[in-house]
Amino acid sequence: MTTATPDGTTARLQAIERKLDALSDSAAVGSSIAARLDRLEAMIDTLGTLGQRMPVIADGAAATATWAWGQAEARGIDPIATGQRAAELALVAADPEMLALLERLAAKRGALSAAVDALDAIDEEDLTTVAAHGAQMTGTLAALLRAPEGTEIEPVGPFRALRKLGDIDVKRALGFGLALAKRVGQLLAP
Question: What is the pTM of this model?
Fold first, then answer.
């Protein structure tokens, strides 16, 4: 729209064109502001609804806390001491090393689930027996594995083996092995 017109109207027409462009830009900005105001109004309505329901929510939370407190006391649980222990546990769990361990456990949740399933299949009395004897045997096995360096196991022929049967430690070890073999045989019998 830059054609030459008399009396400097070209400059006026360009000024009017700029104002019209600015006005159309203003209309776009205005519609954007209107959309934002609509969203803001919806959020205020939601907050107003929440504000109206807050007494009911607070009452429900208080009733739930009172019920939980009563249940804990009925079971002999001190809610304050338990809460303090839970807070201490949260502090321990927030330690970076503990978080790393928990992440490792979470990464192995399939294997952990299988291990827990296996534990569920074991008779509790058997598990207690194995745990009690296993702890004792673990110490013994660890002591055996920590044999002094340079200790070699020398080959023994049949006659030397017969002579070693006189040693009380050898007799004890053989007795254990035979008792274990007998018990395994009993468990394998149909």
Answer: 0.33
